[in-house]
Design a protein that fits this description.
single chain, Rossmann fold, three-stranded antiparallel β-sheet, 11 strands, 15% strand
């Protein structure tokens, strides 16, 4: 079984089975920029609910908070991977349904794959946020249970039994505070919670590249189930690097953001 969480998605619908809603959270810095931003048409939006959340965490004003851009590739990414692993529609959570409440109430120990496609925040990205977090959808009334940010300490309290947790987000291998050693933040918390392998990122990843690398990895595993996760990721990276359709594909920043930590072989 596989559970997938994607708080943001594209406006169009690539598969009629999956309904999507759009959310526009805010933050100081943008990871995984949307296509329209890379084309030079930068947009900033502020969701008042997240502004209130950030204001509370920052103990100050939300006026300086910039919008996290939409991630138009993530819903397609989730849908493609879901088809490759045969995930049930009920186990795919997009838009508003991709919330802390949904995650914390799910029987996560029943899932072999748990997949997040969203924005990642490292400690210090937002003043007052002292630990790495994943940005999920923001509730109308933020609470201690669900304030829209799944922090490393909250991850450590989850009960997992997952062969693989995929963190298709920015800087998910980062430490628990600025200058801390790698793997001391979200990654360590997921291992503590019960994950046996993680797909994590070293830096702020390009959205299209992340989608292509992750979906290609799962496509390879579907075609060759005995391949192993580490080898599938390696082949996906090589295919991206060898694609001469754009000179950007040769840059390590594009093809090399992800690392597989933990069990990489077939179990």
């Amino acid at each position: 079984m596989a559970a997938r969480f994607c708080p943001q998605g594209s406006k169009h619908q690539a598969d009629d089975r999956f309904r999507r809603s759009r959310v526009q959270p805010c933050s100081r810095r943008a990871c995984r920029p949307a296509r329209r931003e890379r084309q030079g048409r930068r947009t900033q939006h502020c969701d008042d609910r997240l502004c209130r959340l950030l204001a509370r965490r920052r103990r100050g004003s939300c006026a300086a908070a910039q919008a996290l851009p939409q991630l138009p590739d993530t819903a397609d990414e989730l849908s493609a991977v879901a088809r490759d692993v045969g995930a049930a529609e009920a186990d795919i959570h997009l838009g508003r349904d991709a919330s802390e409440t949904t995650l914390k109430r799910a029987a996560l120990a029943q899932y072999g794959i748990i997949y997040f496609a969203t924005h990642g925040l490292v400690a210090g990205d937002v003043k007052g946020l002292g630990e790495p977090s994943l940005a999920l959808s923001i509730p109308d009334q933020p609470t201690e249970l669900d304030d829209g940010l799944l922090t490393a300490s909250e991850v450590a309290q989850l009960k997992l039994n997952a062969d693989w947790v995929v963190l298709s987000a920015c800087n998910t291998i980062a430490g628990d505070k600025p200058g801390a050693e790698a793997l001391s933040g979200l990654a360590r918390s997921f291992f503590y919670a019960g994950a046996r392998a993680l797909l994590v990122s070293h830096w702020a990843v390009d959205s299209e590249a992340a989608t292509r690398l992750t979906t290609s990895t799962f496509e390879l595993l579907k075609k060759e189930p005995k391949l192993g996760r580490a080898e599938a990721l390696r082949r996906a990276m090589l295919a991206y690097l060898d694609d001469a359709s754009s000179p950007r594909n040769a840059y390590p920043a594009m093809w090399g953001p992800f690392a597989l930590i933990g069990e990489g072989e077939v179990r």
